[in-house]
Amino acid sequence: MADITATQAPPSLSAPSEKEKKYDRQLRLWAARGQAALESANVLLLNNGSGTVGAETLKNLVLPGIGRFTIVDAAVVSEADLGVNFFLDEAALGKSRAQSCTELLLELNPEVQGEWYPHNSEKLDFTHFLETRDPFTIVLYTLPLQSDHLSVLESYSQKHKTPLIAIHSVGFYSYFKTRLPGVYPIVDTHPDPTAITDLRLVQPWEELAAFAAEMTCDIDNLDGHEHGHIPFVVILLHYLEVWKATHSGTPPITYSEKVAFRGEENFEEAAAAVLKTISPPALPAAVKQIFEYKHAGENELYSSFWVIAAAVREFYEKHQSLPVPGGLPDMKAQSGAYVKLQNIYKAKSRRDAAEVLDLVRQKPGGEKVDPSDVDLFCKNAAFIKLIVPAEGDLDQLQVVAERELANDDLAREGIMPPSLLPVYLALYATSHNPMASPEEILSSIQRLVPSITKSERVSQAAAEVSRAGAALSQSLEECRSILKRLYPDQEVQSLLPLSRQELLSLLGRPLHDTPIALPSPPTNPSPLSQELESPACSKSEQGLSGLELMPGRDTEWDEERRGRDPIPIEADDVNALSLSVDRQSSYLGASSIKAALMCLLKVCPGLRHSLITPLQSVEVTQSFPTVRFRGTAPPKDTQRIPWSWKGQTLIDAYFKRIHVFVPMLDEAAFRADYLEGQRFDAPWLALLNMVFAMGSIVAMKSDDYNHINYYNRAMEHLPIDAFGNSHIETVQALAMIGGYYLHYINRPNMANAVLGAAIRMASALGLHRESLAKGVSDMAVAETRRRTWWSLFCLDTWATTTMGRPSFGRWGPAINIKPPEFGVNQGRDSAQHAGILPLIENIKFCKIATQIQDLLAISPLLRAEDRCNLDDQLLTWYGNLPWLLRTTDPCAEPLYIARCIMKWRYQNLRMLLHRPVLLSLASSGPLPQVAEPDVAAIETCRDLARQTVEDISREWTRNQMSGWNAVWFLYQAAMIPLVGIFWQWNSPRVPEWRQQIETILDLLEAMEEWSLAARRSREVVWRMYEASRQRSMRTKSHLAGVAGDQALLLAETGLHMSPIGLEPEGMGMMGILDQQGLWDLDGMYWGPSPDPAVDFSSYGVNDSMMNLDYGIMSSQVAAMDGSFYAP
Asked: Bias category Basic and acidic residues: which stretches (predicted)?
């Protein structure tokens, strides 16, 4: 980036106009020229079938501001339309569907003009309509379509050179198909960033070469500042001349030569630009296609595009290069040098464009060509393409089918996603017959592509398209018929806001139903609690009770002590990433991550030595911006926050990557409030700043700390007395703080407290009870209440499930709020593709998770039948997920992130359900027998850990919402193979477990930029993994000489080599055990050593190991003598 000197006048700034604010998204995408083309467009929609997909498509054109539209639709609104078309309500019954949709569409954007046809009682005469209207820019038509209408459209398209777009939708499947009346040239003004930059370094013109020579004539004697600000273009030109002098005047052409050239100079920008910029001018294949195109008629030759194309071709033949674009990338340079260099490129670009314009004027029709079109063509000449419509649809379809079938073979190997061709063919077969049966669809496909009908995926697609198409209208009519029989005197609209009890009361039927909520675990003795108290469970229960991290009598914990003590920024009391001498700890149950770490320490106490050594990558909080917690300080004076591009970008990031999980905000209302910039009440400012904070996190990498500033500003509007002034926006802000933000900056206990307070504030607002909404606005408010409550419910569940603490009744019979509903104010989720579907399914998941959390908080060792029942509930939940949330087909990013994290969380909860069995067996020593259900639980746990690692390695994406969650679930999964490696060190499955750990280490390293805790998590896992490797080598060495003198063993235990060579001076094994470290022995009393002589061979545990006693530790420590394995 060029430096700006103090002598330069700053550029004049002006606030964006109202229109620029309104259309900011598309202006950034296709600039003013593209927006002008959009605003001049005249769009025709021929609406057929249910009319839903046509209205939705037109809505997405009206919002960005097309010039005008016309809807042709002879249908009259019926009750069937009300269930599928969100634009229509009961007020439209009996009216023209075209008129109703047009009027409502025009409300979305007053700057757009629209009309409908036919009017009133006019008969639809489609041919007459087209003949009496101005030509349309583009024609959309929805399927199914009458064949005579299709013929009229095709004739109109050929006559007026108007593109046709067919749109078809059935259930969750849809497609669109473009029909072009001829070839269409396009200019890609946003080319691929990896495209070669045309700087003409290999063939510089005279002015450019002279400028570079002047700047580098004494390059070796320049001072540091001047040397460090030479533009990389000049650097490359200088060293190209040096290269040519030693390579017979030839520039580096091959990849190896370019790599060698790059190694000669360590200027970072220049080295990075070598592969992209040092290339001789070459004619792109797309441009060559334009130059060689054979015209179908002479009329094409006289259009502006083809006249300019012919002139550019002559220019290329003369100079063997396209016109210079004139653009110059950002680079480190003094502003004066950069401006001179920029002017050189611009001057050359203008000269080339002028030469092309002269050639244009010499051609027939050239006098009518606009010079600005010539400039645009020359500037983007390398990125102009020609779209040629396919000829012979059936032949093309056969070729495509063969290619897609081959791709499906690769998809089965996991190389690429499966083909969507079966879905397209099934939809295509219903283009004129929406009620086709599966057999009819397959028969139609067989006529089109005989070779593909044997595919199972084609049969599945045909069945689904047929089911969705035939069942939708039938189901709606059946439901309305039932409603009419139940409530003959009531309108459907009046029934929507009523609760279940109110609907039953209208029927005059007494209530005999049990509460629909899942009850909390009973306090009276149950078979589960009685079994847990039985002698058979006492031994395992004693072992697992030691895995609870119970604070001592005088223990205090303070998450803010990192401001005083050198605590790593990634570490907190829950994730166990702080391996320093840190005794302050809150209560954590046996389902927490620390339970797994404590189990590892019990199996191998010598592991403690590897973990207490200071981490190599310690980054204490001095490098982390200050997070202020204002406590009782007075709130800051409120003031309006004006609209800005940066704020808009952060809001976009929030609604793209956060909102899909917790859609509690009304996106349209929130954006409107921010755009107007008139609100300055404290709840709004707190909420807005938290949206900024979370948007900043998910939009940036983990080394960006700007989110701290937004969080601090939010807290300025949330003083302690804010908890006494319940406002739904305050609750929403606290939900983000306690549910996400404080966990991100590693304050889990504070997060737990804040989220608990938010839930109680929500209950004070009555969000846990269903409201009796009456009007449309009341229904929107009721929907916001539902979404806010259930978002709190899910956030609290996700955050506390791995703490081993009870749920404290976040779900019970007193909570009768309904889940969010489809079809209520759909516009609030217009940008989110998945809408509220993930939240609805997450609510079901979190109800099961709450049961599991409460039962594990009572005792982590559940009865086998209880454990299997809960596991079956989870399996059923996942198996019943809508196709949209289970498929691996490509989709929009918000939906992709949601479905990936939902699957990872599901796998993690199943793993936590079974993990106590593994930890119990690993930490309790020899047991009389291993029950078959316990063996199955351990295998399930291990399979889930393996599957989690495989899925995350394949599915995670490079953004913090994905990376943050992926690191946490990988860290959880890593404990399973680690326990196996330490506990069953001689199992034949150890290589498999080691491979899993190595994959996790690679993934955590790749995620360091996308998760604050990735680096620390990797180092903790790596230390344990290295300790296991050294332990394995020492064990093998010891077993070879196990008959040696016991005194020799005692002497050997005094040698403790750290796996990374950082042994604290004077600290032997006994000294380490005496330290008040993270896992204090006060909480690790394991009970008496069990009796010997147990057959444990099925788990790969060496029976001879279990009774070794070298006198180093008392019999009350684990039966596996950890000092024997001390690294």
From this structure: 551-561
